[in-house]
Amino acid sequence: MTAISRITPARRLLLGGLLLGGSTLAAQHALAEEITIACGPGDAADYCPVLAERWAEETGHEVDIVSTPNDATEKLSLYQQLLGSQSSDVDVIMIDIVWPGLLANHLVDLSEYLPEDATEGFFPALVDNNTVDGKLVAMPWFTDAGLLYYRKDLLEKYGHEVPETWQQLTDIATDIQAAEREAGNDDFWGFSFQGRAYEGLTTNALEWVASHGGGTIVDDAGNVTIDNARAAAALDLAASWIDDISPEGTLNHTEEETRGIFQSGNALFLRNWPYVWALANGEDSDVAGKVGMAPLPHGPEGESVATLGGWNWAVSRYSEHPEIAADLVAYLTAPEQQKAHAIEMGMNPTIEALYEDEEVLASNPSMSDLYATLTNGVPRPATVTATDYPRVTNAFFNRVHEVLSGNQDGAAAVQQLEGELRRLSRRW
Known about the structure:
globular; four-stranded mixed sheet; about 425 residues; D-Maltodextrin-Binding Protein, domain 2; single chain; about 15% strand; alpha+beta; seven-stranded mixed sheet
């Protein structure tokens, strides 16, 4: 862990006051505290130091930025090491949407330090996700949800509408893939998605299962619900895509590999996160101006759902200044800062009203299309399974990967998974 110590505007002001002997500034210095915040590097966190130092300038406190690994798994490992040792070195940490249950015992209850209405206006699903055993352990900062990207020029060329069901997607992808290959593009595929055995596959497969009416793996009460015919059918349909409308390499694809296929003009449909929109329409994109965005399809007995992603701010239980740290969290997640984050960095706010804000929409018109998707977003069962979530998601994406690889059918996979998760559920 490397601390990047910064002389912030607030610190310069305070030092200047001491040198000048100004009694007012000296008094402020006596009351000022130093807060350490863990964020960065990476696009999502680049705005964190900017906002943290603005807070320091406005409050007179000092802020130090601690650099953390970009890889989420490595970041979590660092947090677990710090929190497990009850270290007071870091006060505020940026946590993934699936970590509140895992880290809850090491985080303060923010409701003890923030106003009663602190969560008003935020997406309820995100607040619920960050509430563990009645304690608000994190405040939502920005959010993500799975989306369907499509080539609007090709749908128009071949006389198809945007698919509303997964079966329609399959049929349209089959038709247009064949036509494009006949026209000379042998590298063209119908559908690109994240199929590697990792957390990204959990987000994809949860969307397939939930949109078929097959539940959410584990429900809010902690009951394992995965062993059902609709869930099995969803996985079997997804397996039929491999080496048919999706390349065999899908079994090892993550977000960036799939974006590359789509952005190079070699896929009709893509499942990915909102960040793709700006990149797919960028100057160096082969499909700029040809891309549409829509909610994900659904099964015959379900509704469109998108797995929620995103990041949140939390305060370490071992902070020596939890009230001041909570004030920094409130500042970072306040409407003004979220609006700036959306406009300047293109990140999706967690406050519903900002999706109707004229300046936000002027900076990114696609924001308005995201609102319904985020409202209906489904969280992964991380809060209810708490410290067992890593085992739950590993079991889920490994079984799904077996189905996609053709080593199991859906029915056998969900039956086996049910047994694995029931054994784990005795601990919840």
